[in-house]
Specification:
The protein is an all-alpha fold. It has 9 helices and no strands. 78% of the residues lie in helices and 0% in strands. Helix 3 (46-65) runs antiparallel to helix 6 (92-119) and helix 6 crosses helix 9 (193-220). It is elongated and about 55 Å long.
Length: 221
């Protein structure tokens, strides 16, 4: 099996992630805007903000991850590149995973690194624990992008398929968002939540590429 098509798909997606879409700037703006609006709506009570903060940030992170997903496979389906990927010597699942990983590095990882700063708005303590939280956000955002990639593959031939991606991906985001918010809440069950979050991410990385490959083959028929 040649790794050249996989590396080519990875490099292509890194370029596409910034071409015409400002890379991480748009999802970062969405994440920041969503997090800023919540305190304006629920008030400035410190205890309330601290209680709802983890859940709000995870929901905002999940929604922000949807912003750039439409670009993962759509251009390949439009210009015929998808047919070339399907004829290449590498597994389609590996190519799909490489393209999704490239988009996560361009948009998902910056979102994860930015999220702990937003936690300060919700009365989180400025401590080394924020660095640990950044790792949890990175794990969760990786799962979001891989599940979102399934929706992107299913809507590859649909013009303006953002709504379809959301309908497919959001239900798959629920376990990751629940475990992520629970891991940072400090409440009952929070001690084991990071392990469940890691398990949900590993499951997404293991299953989603094959689902994407099947969807891309259907799109090419």
């Amino acid at each position: 099996m040649s790794a050249a098509p996989i590396l080519a798909a990875f490099r292509q997606s890194l370029g596409e992630a910034w071409a015409g879409g400002a890379g991480a700037l748009l999802p970062l703006g969405f994440l920041g805007g969503a997090a800023v609006l919540v305190p304006l709506g629920i008030g400035s009570d410190g205890e309330t903000l601290k209680a709802v903060g983890p859940g709000i940030i995870w929901v905002a992170l999940a929604l922000a991850s949807l912003v750039t997903l439409e670009r993962i496979f759509q251009s390949d389906a439009e210009d015929g590149t998808l047919d070339l990927w399907l004829q290449a010597g590498a597994p389609v699942s590996a190519i799909a995973a490489a393209k999704t990983l490239a988009h996560w590095l361009s948009a998902g990882l910056p979102l994860a690194l930015f999220s702990p700063l937003l936690a300060l708005m919700f009365q989180a303590e400025a401590s080394p624990a924020l660095l640990v939280n950044a790792g949890l956000y990175a794990l969760g955002s990786l799962a979001f992008f891989f599940w979102g990639g399934v929706g992107a593959a299913l809507s590859a031939t649909v013009r303006r398929g953002g709504l379809l991606i959301s309908l497919i991906a959001l239900p798959l985001y629920v376990p990751t968002a629940i475990f992520g918010a629970l891991a940072m809440s400090g409440g009952p069950g929070s001690a084991g939540a990071p392990l469940f979050l890691a398990a949900s991410t590993l499951f997404a990385c293991a299953v989603a590429p094959y689902a994407m490959a099947a969807a891309l083959r259907l799109a090419a028929d």
